[in-house]
């Protein structure tokens, strides 16, 4: 189990995360591993920006799901790092007239995501927009 202390602005939030190594490294598969949490943050950050921009554009988002996949490379010395991430968000909007703008806003959300802006590899978005 690991404990992290996050200080966000003037708020103090204590986050308790039960974490383990990946099963590949004899970890506990019932707990999150750092790689999963990393991909999760890279998925949720642009999602929140996306929902914000949709709200500003008066796009009624009914549902949002995402699947994040990353490519991890092993170097000659055995260390590993991510080299690429693809997000596959599926968004359901209320009206057909909202589809094109809803697709466009994924790019903007990625530009504003501070986590995506803090990494040294590309994040690709392959969105699907559906109508309810």
Please give the largest β-sheet.
Answer: 3 strands, mixed
The neighbouring-strand order within the major sheet is: 3-6-8
Give the beta-strand count: 8
Average pLDDT, rounded to a whole number, is: 88
**Into which percentage range does the β-strand content fall?**
25-35%
What gyration radius follows from the Cα positions, in whole Å? 17 Å
Q: What share of the residues lie within helices?
A: 25-40%
Structural class: alpha/beta
Number of helical segments? 2
Topology as a string of helices (H) and strands (E): EEHEEEEHEE
Q: Could you name the ranges where pLDDT drops below 50 across 5 or more consecutive residues?
A: none
Based on CA inertia axes, which overall geometry fits?
Answer: elongated
- Distance from N terminus to C terminus (CA atoms, Å) equals 41 Å
Which terms summarize this structure?
single chain, 132 residues, alpha/beta, three-stranded mixed sheet, 2 helices, elongated
Give a quick rundown of the structure.
28% of the residues lie in helices and 34% in strands.
Task: Give a verbal description of the structure.
This protein is an alpha/beta fold and 132 residues long. Helices cover 28% and strands 34% of the residues. The protein contains two helices and eight strands; from the N terminus they run E-E-H-E-E-E-E-H-E-E. The strands form three sheets. A three-stranded mixed sheet has the order 3-6-8, with helices on one face. It has a three-stranded mixed sheet with strand order 4-5-7. The protein has a two-stranded antiparallel ribbon with strand order 1-2. Helix 1 crosses helix 2. The radius of gyration is 17 Å and the shape is elongated. The termini are far apart. The mean pLDDT is 88.
């Amino acid at each position: 189990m690991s404990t992290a202390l996050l200080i966000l602005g003037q708020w103090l939030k204590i986050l308790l995360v039960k974490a383990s190594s990946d099963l590949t490294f004899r970890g506990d598969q019932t707990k999150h591993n750092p790689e999963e949490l990393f991909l999760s943050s890279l998925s949720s950050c642009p999602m929140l920006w996306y929902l914000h921009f949709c709200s500003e554009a008066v796009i009624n988002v009914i549902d949002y799901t995402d699947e994040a996949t990353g490519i991890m490379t092993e170097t000659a010395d055995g260390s590993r790092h991510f080299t690429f991430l693809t997000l596959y968000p599926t968004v359901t909007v209320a009206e057909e007239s909202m589809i094109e703008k809803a697709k466009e806003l994924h790019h903007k959300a990625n530009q504003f995501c501070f986590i995506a802006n803090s990494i040294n590899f590309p994040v690709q978005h392959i969105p699907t927009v559906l109508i309810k």
